[in-house]
Design goal:
The chain is an all-alpha fold and about 110 residues long. It has a domain of about 60 residues. Helices cover about 60% and strands about 0% of the residues. The chain is built from three helices and no strands. α2 runs antiparallel to α3. The N and C termini lie far apart (about 80 Å).
Length: about 110
């Protein structure tokens, strides 16, 4: 028994619909998504803190950053002479005080958890 079939089979879809589906697929994979206008960052802002990070993690990172700044300014201060050394030591004192405050807040957060 011989069955008559077209060779190749006739497309059952409309070429216009096929083109629209192709365009949607290509746009999805190849075009970058534009940020929402509500989430637009202010011009010149390079860094951002991600939403949803817990307070303890933020304070721990703050404390580590202050410790790093303390080490850098301490190393610099002891290589300087005169009034520049006094300025560097003043910055060092501010960093140390800020670190102490951050550590106290971190201790308070740990005891409340």
């Amino acid at each position: 028994m011989h069955k008559v079939t077209p060779n190749p089979p006739e497309p059952e879809t409309d070429p216009k619909k096929l083109q629209e589906a192709t365009d949607r697929a290509l746009d999805y994979y190849l075009k970058p998504k534009q940020p929402n206008p509500e989430e637009k960052q202010p011009p010149g802002q390079l860094f951002i803190v991600v939403d949803g990070i817990d307070t303890e993690s933020l304070l721990a990172n703050l404390s580590e950053n202050l410790a790093s700044a303390d080490a850098m300014i301490s190393d610099l201060a002891f290589d300087l002479k005169g009034s520049r050394r006094h300025v560097a030591l003043g910055i060092l004192q501010l960093i140390e005080l800020s670190g102490m405050l951050a550590n106290r807040v971190l201790d308070n957060v740990n005891t409340q958890s």
